[in-house]
């Protein structure tokens, strides 16, 4: 199409710009291509967009339901500043690409927090210039861990702790309860991002703690603090500051039970490391798990206990997850699970009960619900255990979440034990994956799991046949299984 503007014939080009997750099209002519028009084509104007507060999808018009994530009434109006000019200018002082083999392998310098469990999750400490996001439900212990970390590192360098949630008195009271009142951590109660960045720029701390990212607001963004555009903008500016100044930023992010606030999901892409607090807030044990780590292993866990004086690392987590021994009862099996680099023993509990319902319940806490359905089908088809008229409840003791398929054998054994109302032998540990054909498949790091159980005094181990290296293990009876039918027959 052709049309006249300023008396010159120009071609209209459809410019598509990728604006995050959606494409917007404009019919702005690329006038400068013809070289006759000044570079500034039109003044900067802002436009409004409707942003879903759940998934950050953008719409030009308001709608009652987000078509992307299905959330109702989640769209809020946001003003987006239009870029001043779309011309391709020469960038002053731009850097040239570097060949991979010319990059010097400078060792990464890491700051050890002194909290050994936290350092383990981070992959041997905090790396300079990185941003670590610590997410978790309210009251689980994020501020406590951040304050402990800040106090530990304040002896090595300057630490700035920004709190947008608590007053300085509240933080002071918490610090004195934890015996950290004497540490020289600099505290600032502030919610304005610009003020935070200015303070950080003046002080140049080694560690900057942001408690929490949801309370910060960037003045140039119109939406309220805690909204997805505020969180994204604040996080991006903080990440830029961290990279430019080599500061480590420990950023706290909230996840509410209702998922109302923009959760740290949006932030996961922006930051270098994502850690999540897990565990039941009513129990005193807490797990910190690495979900993303650009400088260390993922799925590594740190185990803590919440005490009167803050969080303490747990030296023997396996003993913690096993409920107090006592008389063996039906429906309990001990699983050797691999969490990151560490084998752990956890108790799997199952309850099989007659169901008054046409569709019996399958309730699962700490495990994948779909997997339980699959195991019940395998038990029925290959081991003759029919539970179609029974409710089945499965629980992982201690508030732990297990994502490994190596839990299959232990879950199946606990279900069979509850169904038959027959306890499994005392001191028995199991692990292994169950396939749809009823076969028991090997899992990774089998011998490490066995060693952990042996160390804790377990005397019987049920494991996949292919995991057994025939290395003698004194005082431990090894039961190798290759099909689920044989395994169930042994305990019937
Ligand atoms: P907090 O760290 O404020 O949680 P979050 O920042 O994740 O919202 O506090 C977690 C809970 O831990 C709180 O209910 C009080 C409790 N607590 C202790 O039991 N001992 C302690 O030493 C501290 C500081 C807190
Ligand atoms: Mg807090």
Looking at this protein, list some descriptive labels.
492 residues, Rossmann fold, globular, binds magnesium ion, 4 domains, disordered N terminus, binds thymidine-5'-diphosphate, alpha/beta, nine-stranded mixed β-sheet, seven-stranded mixed β-sheet
Mind explaining what this structure looks like?
The chain is α/β, with parallel strands linked by helices. The chain folds into four domains: 2-40, no CATH class; 46-79; 112-315, Rossmann fold (3-Layer(aba) Sandwich), CATH 3.40.50.300; 320-491, Ribosomal Protein S5, domain 2. It is 23% helix and 28% strand. It has helices at 116-122, 142-153, 168-177, 193-203, 228-245, 265-268, 317-321, 369-383, 408-420, 446-455, 484-491; strands at residues 2-5, 8-11, 15-19, 22-26, 46-52, 58-59, 75-81, 110-111, 126-127, 131-136, 159-163, 186-189, 207-211, 248-254, 273-278, 285-293, 301-307, 310-313, 332-339, 342-354, 362-365, 390-396, 428-430, 433-434, 440-441, 460-464, 477-481. It is globular and about 75 Å long. Residues 1-41 have low confidence and may be disordered. Residues 142-143, 165, 211 line the site of magnesium ion (MG).
């Amino acid at each position: 199409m052709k049309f006249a503007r300023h008396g010159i014939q120009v071609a209209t080009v459809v410019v598509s710009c990728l604006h995050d997750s959606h494409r917007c099209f404009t019919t702005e002519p690329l006038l400068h291509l013809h070289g006759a028009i000044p570079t500034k084509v039109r003044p900067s104007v802002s436009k409004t967009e409707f942003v879903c507060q759940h998934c950050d999808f953008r719409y030009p018009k308001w709608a009652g339901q987000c078509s992307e994530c299905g959330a109702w009434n989640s769209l809020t109006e946001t003003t987006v500043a239009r870029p001043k000019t779309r011309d391709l200018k020469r960038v002053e002082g731009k850097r040239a690409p570097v060949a991979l083999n010319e990059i010097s392998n400078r060792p990464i310098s890491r700051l050890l927090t002194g909290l050994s469990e936290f350092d383990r999750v981070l992959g041997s400490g905090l790396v300079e210039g990185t941003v670590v996001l610590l997410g978790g439900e309210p009251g689980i212990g994020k501020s406590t861990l951040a304050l402990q970390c800040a106090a530990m590192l304040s002896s090595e360098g300057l630490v700035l702790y920004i709190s947008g949630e608590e007053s300085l008195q509240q933080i002071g009271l918490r610090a004195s309860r934890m015996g950290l009142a004497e540490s020289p951590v600099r505290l600032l109660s502030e919610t304005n991002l610009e003020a935070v960045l200015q303070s950080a720029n003046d002080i140049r701390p080694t560690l900057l703690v942001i408690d929490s990212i949801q309370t910060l607001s960037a003045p140039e963004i119109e939406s309220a603090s805690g909204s997805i555009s505020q969180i994204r903008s604040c996080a991006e500016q903080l990440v830029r500051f961290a990279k430019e100044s080599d500061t480590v930023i420990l950023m706290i992010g909230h996840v509410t039970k209702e998922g109302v606030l923009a959760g740290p999901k949006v932030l996961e892409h922006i930051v270098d490391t994502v850690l999540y607090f897990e565990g039941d807030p009513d129990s005193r044990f807490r797990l910190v798990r690495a979900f993303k780590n650009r400088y260390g292993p993922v799925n590594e866990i740190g185990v803590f206990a919440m005490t009167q004086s803050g969080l303490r690392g747990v030296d023997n987590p396996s003993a913690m997850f096993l409920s107090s021994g006592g008389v063996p009862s039906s429906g309990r099996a001990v699983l050797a699970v691999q969490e990151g680099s560490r084998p752990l023993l956890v108790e799997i509990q199952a309850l099989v009960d007659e169901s008054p319902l046409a569709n019996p319940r399958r309730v699962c806490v700490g495990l994948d619900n779909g997997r339980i359905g699959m195991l019940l089908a395998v038990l029925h088809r290959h081991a003759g255990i029919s539970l179609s008229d029974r409710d089945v409840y499965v629980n992982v003791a201690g508030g732990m979440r297990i994502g490994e398929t190596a839990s299959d054998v232990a879950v199946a054994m606990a279900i069979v034990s509850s169904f038959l109302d027959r306890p499994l032998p005392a001191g028995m540990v199991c692990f292994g994956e169950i396939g749809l054909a009823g076969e028991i498949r090997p899992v990774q790091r089998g011998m490490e799991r066995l060693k952990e159980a042996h160390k804790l005094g377990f005397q019987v181990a049920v494991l996949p046949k292919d995991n057994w290296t025939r290395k003698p293990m004194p005082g431990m009876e090894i039961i190798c299984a290759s099909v689920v039918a044989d395994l169930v027959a042994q305990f019937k």
